[in-house]
Amino acid sequence: MALRLCQKRVYFLASRSSVIRTCALAAWSLFGSISSAAEFEELNVTETNGEYRLRIAAVLDAPADYVHSVVTDYKHVYRINPSVTEVEILPSGHAGVIRVRNLSEQWVGPFCFNINWVGDILETGEGKIRVKTLSEPGNFESGDAIWEIRPRGERTWVLHESRLKPDFFIPPVIGDNIMKNRMRTNTLDTFKRIECHARAMLERDMANATELLKELSEAGRDCLHPQALAEIMRP
After folding, report:
1. What is the DSSP letter of 4?
2. What pLDDT, on the 0 to 100 scale, is given for residue 30?
3. Which residues of 157-177 are buried (b: 16+ CB within 10 A; e: fewer)?
4. Cα 147 from Cα 129, distance rounded (Å)
5. Which CATH class is domain 4-233?
């Protein structure tokens, strides 16, 4: 997987439909009525024999049905994963299973490289989602993940656990530390974006959509790109 020098983009403009995984390193700044109130209970990232494991639990300040809608909106994952650049939904051959090929752009200093991920997604009911990483034709030997989304009053408890074993070279010690720090930062960013978009959808259903669109678009550095917000507000 060759590194290349790229021009960094300020905003992600979706060229295709999008789906789960990899999150961009982006400054987190929410505006006005949808400021973040997420409570992170746990975040652990470990590495053993080249396999990375992540576990995060958090309470998000949005109702469970809205959070579930954001997490399972596979066609608009760039709203929470801005590094995704290409997505293709493929036939899985199994009832109820969504197979996805996901290309993302990752940055290391001034250099960037593409990661190809292919996986099967199964919603098993009661707020549970299972993800199985396929070794071909992606850049991972193996992997899987689970999501659990449970109502907690008007808020939502979310658990995410995943394991991934890349098939590309990661320099020992320094590379492992960079990888784990990146995973922590990206995961926090994704959870905050999930909460942000769930709150925006709630506001859309309860408040004046035109004023909300204007307010958030003027914020500039919000978790909501104006294009994504316009899509949320579209009937």
Report:
1. E
2. 29
3. bbbbebbbbbeeeeeeeeeee
4. 5
5. alpha beta
CB 80 within 8 A of CB 69: no
Task: Please name the amino acid found at residue 211.
Answer: E
Q: Single out the residue of 136, 99, 125, 96 nearest to residue 19, CA to CA.
A: 99
Q: Is this prediction's pTM over 0.70?
A: yes
d(CA 23, CA 82): 6
User: 42-89 pLDDT, tens per residue?
Assistant: 999 999 988 999 999 999 999 999 999 999 988 788 888 888 888 888
What is 9-73 written as a DSSP string?
PSS---SS---S-----------GGG----EEEEEEEEEETTEEEEEEEEEESS-HHHHHHHHT-
Which residues lie across from 151 on neighbouring strands?
156
Residue 177, both tokens:
């530390």
The pLDDT value recorded for residue 67 is 97
| 96 within 8 A of 122, measured Cβ to Cβ | yes
Phi, psi for 144 (deg, rounded to 5): -160, 170
Residue with tokens 């505006």: 31
What type of residue sits at position 37? A
Q: Round to whole Å and give the CA distance between 161 and 148.
A: 9
What's residue 16's pLDDT?
Answer: 29
**What torsion do the CA atoms of 11, 17, 22, 23 make, to the nearest 10 degrees?**
30
Tell me the β-bridge partners of 161.
Answer: 55, 146
In this structure, are residues 47 and 174 in contact, taking their beta carbons and an 8 Å threshold? no
pLDDT at 223: 75
Residues of the chain with pLDDT under 50: 1-35, 220-221
